[in-house]
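Tutorial, part two.
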Amino acid sequence: MIIADLNLTQKQKDHICHCVEFHEQYNFGTHKVTVKDIETLIVQDADNLDAIGAIGIMRCIQYNTTYNVPMYLPNIPLYQNEYNETVAIANDCSCIHHINNKLMRLGEHMNTKTAKEMAIEKTDFMQKFIDMVVRDWE
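Running the prediction step on this input gives:
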């Protein structure tokens, strides 16, 4: 374990482990954040920022190609309601659906001012990408 080799107190090591363990403990419902310490919130933001924008689109395409998920299914409307993890598989039936249904919402759930600012450009890029795919598909 890399953390064990660091010159940190056990309390610091435990907190790092906490941040890693709980950085995905958020929900897109009304409560949004389920962790409160700033370090975990920052790790959460970093993870979400990595999942959006150009790199997020490339990751989505790579994942969907690996698992034979269609690029786009125009006969299925793009989901417009609040994202719900429990129905994500049904709603994220294509790469474009996943980008629209989940990735486009990540910017709304950033915790820090810096992450919120960074997410704006990335979200705008994804929206332009979705718009162009839909327009080109038609």
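The chain has one domain: 41-137. In part three we will examine how such features are distributed along the chain.
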